[in-house]
Each structure stands twice: as structure tokens, then as C-alpha cells.
Amino acid sequence: MFRTSLVACLIAGILASGCTSHATPSQQNKDTTLNSGEQPSRAEQQSFIAWRAGFRHRALAAGIAPGVFDAAFEHVTLNQQVIKLDRRQAEFTRQLWDYLDTAVSATRVSNGQEKRRALAGTLARIEQGYGVRPEVVLAVWGMETNYGSFRGNTPTIEGLATLAFEGRRREFAETQLIAALRILQSGDVSVQDMRGSWAGAMGHTQFMPTSYLEYARDFDGDGKRNIWSDDPTDALASTAYYLSRFGWQPGAPWGLEVTLPAGFDYAQADQNNRRPVAHWRRLGVTRANGTPLPDHGDAAILVPAGAQGPAFVVFNNFYVIKRYNNATAYAMAVGHLADKIAGGSDFNRAWPRHERALSRAEKQELQQRLTEQGFDTKGADGVIGPNTMTAIRAWQQAHGLTADGYASASLLNRLR
Ligand code: CA
After folding, report:
1. Domain boundary among 198, 214, 243
2. Is 195 helix (H, G, I), strand (E, B) or coil?
């Protein structure tokens, strides 16, 4: 895992089982208002300079040449907007279907199809090289930067230096910063061109510097691994390589919509409960179109909106996408966008769109009420995790309801 993405938590919080991710997902919170004019105080500036002096020692000890460091930091100042964005907290999260409406919009699908035509040769070579089909690479690109149209304009060194100085995630930011300095030292990109999101993700598919060092490819053969330029070739190849290194299975789907049998035990619908396909077939799980489940190795059942919404079987590639960004909603969006770009259809079953998202305070209240009524959620942090879902299931069972563990507004009302 490579970094914690606040953005991932903001847009995908409903299902994020932790917000560690490789790259910044989509663009809702990108840095359009950077350098808004707020100036750091004199004291802040002084302590930033002190941090920089200390960090310079650490960077040089890690093998960064003094000249590279000094050139990289020549114009770096404390970026107030980065601090503001880093401190922002989300109170409300979006429902998965609202998120998917945006992430897999008709425009994004048709733009992806257009890119597939325009880049057919490159994408075919990438598939030949790394075994990842074009639609999946396009879907990551579409999710990360809307096909390169929002790559972010924050100077990467300045953004990461600000995060490191600010200190909430200093160790992480300094690690990324040293990786970024290594990239500059390698000569792949200039300080001026090394730009990206406020949180340090760079280029068409938003690689963090450490990921870049490990997975970036020079696919067009010009001697530079250039993920920043208008030409997305290297970035797309790097993305496919990243997925292949994390075990992408060529030819296998991320997941498929399924129909669950009557009386299905929803306690089994947990993405950590990966079982052979034969197990699910035995229980009577079929594809939504009624045909038997195909076997692509161990699989889990996912009911992101509880028993009222669509159900899915997810295979290995779903978990590989999560290595890019560890949010269930993100992985579903990439998978579904890829399928739609390839000409696939919408899900069969409708989402329960009448269910509104609970606020963090409401989730806390739900946890407190469950615990008070003897269904221990093991804390009330306002995040619906496995303990809360188990408590909800037990409560539902005790009240003769379908025990899907889904935290809904109607459940909260019944608890009140
Ligand atoms: Ca290149």
C-alpha cells in the first residue's frame, strides 16, 4: 500500500474499508483553487525553513545529491491550500449509487470508447505486454484524471513538502518526497513538469512517487518514463504493469452481478470471505441472467446496498484494482466503467435509491443505540465496519428481518 488518500475517503467513504490507496481517485476535489492568496505567517515560514534544513540532511543521507535537492527546493514555499485540503473532513458520505452515477456517467463511457478508438494500437501493445485489456486501463485513466484532462497542477515537491512539514503524515510524506527527489535525480522529468494532485499523485493515472519508482515504464522507448506529458502512452503502460505486478488475471472479469437464492445467509456476503466458486454454486448463487457462475478462482459475494440492492460475485481482479485504491466503491467503479466501455449493460437490479446516506453522527448514534440494546458494536466511531455489521445482523435476526447488516436510515429510525 502506498498512501492514505483523503479524497478516496471523501468520495467513497460509504464502503471504504480503510482509506489507504495507491493513487488519487477521480477529480472531485482537485486543486482548482490552489494558491488562493492566503499567506503563511512569518512564524510558519520560519519553522518550515527549519523543517527543510532537517529534511535536507535526511534526503542527502538517503542518496539525494545536494545539487538535485537545492534545485528542487529553490522555489518551494509552504502551500496553504494543500494544508487546507489535507485538514478537510467529510461529514456526509455519498451513497454508492450516487458515486457510480458520476464515476460511470454516459459521458465518461463514451469518452472512454473514443479513447479506445484513438489509442487502439498503443492499447493493444500494452495488453500484449502486460495482459490487461484496454478497457480496464482506460477505466483507471477515466477514474483518475478523466482521461488526462485533470492531472493536477500542484508542484509535487511543494505539495509533499507542505504535507511533510504539516506533520499529520510526516513519515509518509517524507518517504514520498525522497522518492520524488530520486525521480528528479534520474532525469525522467524536470522540477517544472513534475506536477500533480495536492497530495502528491502524478500524471495521467496519478502515481505516487514510490509507485512510480517501482512500476513506471518507458513504453514508447524514448528513454524517459514520462507519465506527465500529454501523450499518455507511458502512463497507461505503467498502470497495466502495476496491475499485472499485483496479480491481474488476463481474461477474467473483476466481478459479475448475481442472483442470490431465497434465504441466503448474508453473513457470508463479506469480501474477506473468499471461497471457491463451487461453494457459491452449491448455495444456489447464479449469474443475474440465470446462467451458472463461471470459475475464475476464489470469489466473494458483495451486497454493497444490502439485500435491497444488486449482489455481485467478485474475483481476484477486484482485489487487484483495490491495490490501486483500497475503496470498494472505487474498485466497483473501475470494473463497471471498464465493462461499459466494452459495451456492457447496466446492472439488472436497481439500487435502493430511496435510502439516503447516514451522516457520521447518525452512524455513531446507530452504534450507540445498538450497543445499548445489547448488540455490541465494539465502539461508536461513526464508521460502519465488520463489528457494526455483525451487530446489525444480530439485531435484524432478533427482530425477524433479513439479516443483511446494512446500516440504513430506516434501521436507525426503528432503533429510536
Ligand atoms: Ca517514454
Report:
1. 243
2. strand
User: What pLDDT is stored for residue 175 in this prediction?
Assistant: 98
Is 331 domain-assigned? no
231 Cα to the center of ligand 1, angstroms: 9
H, E, C per residue of 236-253: HHHHHHHHHHCCCCCCCC
Q: Count CA within 13 A, CB hemisphere, residue 74.
A: 9
Q: Give the C-alpha separation, 206 to 204, whole Å.
A: 6
- 335's CB contacts (< 8 A; 6+ apart) are 139, 253, 254, 255, 317, 318, 321
Please give the distance, rounded to the nearest whole angstrom, from the Cα atom of residue 219 to the centre of ligand 1. Answer: 6
pLDDT of residue 15: 35
In the chain, the number of structural domains is 2
In the reported structure, the alpha carbon of residue 217 is separated from the centroid of ligand 1 by a whole-number distance in angstroms of: 7
> 117 C-alpha to center of ligand 1: Å?
21
Range of the domain at 193: 3-90+151-243
Whether residue 201 is contained in a domain is answered as yes
Per DSSP, helices labelled H in 246-302 are 277-283
Q: Distance of CA 271 to CAs 84, 190, 300, 303, 313, Å? A: 34, 42, 5, 9, 9
pLDDT in tens, 19-72: 334 444 333 343 333 344 567 788 988 999 999 999 999 999 999 999 999 999
200 neighbors 156 (Cβ within 8 angstroms): yes
For residue 402, tell me if it sits in a domain. Answer: yes
